[in-house]
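User: Could you check the structure of this?
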Amino acid sequence: MDLLNHLEVYINAQKGVGFNAFVFSTGMIVAAILLHFFGTSQLALGLRNGTFIIGIILIAMGVGLRISQEGILKEKKALYQQDKVGFQRVEIERMTKVKNNYPKAQAIMSGLVALSLVGFLLIKSPVWQGISLSFTVFFVGNIIMEAFSYLSIVSYFQTLTN
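Assistant: Sure, the predicted structure tokens are below.
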């Protein structure tokens, strides 16, 4: 299998992460709808509002990821057709950055989980506590989705560098 095929596998995996974001967002929106009809407390109101807004944001993130990956694939295919050695060099540089940014991004998301939980404990308004909890779910979901993404990052990076 040549490097272009490996790139396509990587891109498809990243588009799969975009699909996961869509599935997660759908779950968040369904939760918001259920909370709208069955939630009677101020905490439920905050959860409803937070999960609905985050669900919409996640849809945009998932669609944006899929679109950006299509653009990357088109650009990299053209480079591969012109210069296979240059393609590999550019991809190693790009994927080194992507691979090295993963632990930083996970640390930031973990910090945001902790911050949103601290906010939940310190905030006295049940509505804002609900919003804080919805952010906690959002950040934990991102940690999980990025973990799936990282598997394809490492696999593609190893192919490029071997």
